[in-house]
Design a protein that fits this description.
Layout: H1 2-15, E1 21-34, E2 43-54, E3 59-65, E4 70-71, H2 74-84, E5 92-99, E6 111-123, E7 126-139, E8 142-152, E9 168-181
Antiparallel strand pairs: 1-2, 1-9, 2-3, 2-4, 3-5, 5-6, 6-7, 7-8, 8-9
Length: 183
């Protein structure tokens, strides 16, 4: 609970900085836990994650309601929320970190800038450090941040029942795509 309050305080403080902050309420996060032996794809998408980025420092934060993930089949969504991520106990996932090589990004010049992001991800009540490669793409008044990385579900105490352990990947691929408007 303290971590959630801290993230909310950070988001509020970022919002008070006005033009020093880029934000979106429509970041897209994809989750894929399809294993090679899965008879169907185990993937989901949310298009309503929130994100803030401090323009001066490259600090970034994301928050997502786990219930917002949409699956192809409603039964998968039910299993995801009830059995795996236990949404009633752990309703949100968060990330707070920094773009490590932010000095190489020029938000006033169009271009695609490779970056590395490092921070703490909280999922299923567990906080772990995550490092991921990504890109910042500046195009006019839009700044787009993307990254794809993998997480071990067991690192976040996500238990996969024996009945389906061969059908669900132990490692999930997470793809983040956030488009911010420059003010």
């Amino acid at each position: 609970m303290k971590k959630i309050l801290f993230l909310l305080a950070m988001v509020i403080s970022l919002a008070s900085n006005g033009q020093d902050t880029l934000s979106t309420k429509n970041a897209v996060i994809n989750f894929d836990a399809t294993s090679p032996s899965s008879p169907e794809k185990i993937e989901a998408i949310s298009k309503i994650a929130i994100s803030k980025m401090l323009v001066k420092t490259g600090e970034v934060a994301f928050a997502i309601q786990m219930m917002s993930f949409e699956f192809e089949k409603s039964l998968m969504k039910d299993h995801f929320n009830e059995n795996y991520v236990e949404t009633s106990k752990f309703p949100r996932a968060t990330f707070k970190g920094n773009i490590l090589d932010y000095s190489k990004v020029n938000l006033s010049k169009n271009g695609k800038y490779p970056v590395k992001v490092k921070g703490n991800m909280n999922l299923h009540g567990v906080t772990k450090e995550v490092t991921a490669d990504g890109f910042i793409n500046v195009n006019g008044d839009k700044v787009n941040a993307t990254s794809t990385f993998k997480i071990n579900l067991s690192d976040f105490n996500v238990k996969i029942p024996d009945l389906v352990k061969d059908k669900v990947a132990k490692e999930a691929t997470i793809t983040v795509n956030a488009t911010y408007n420059k003010m």
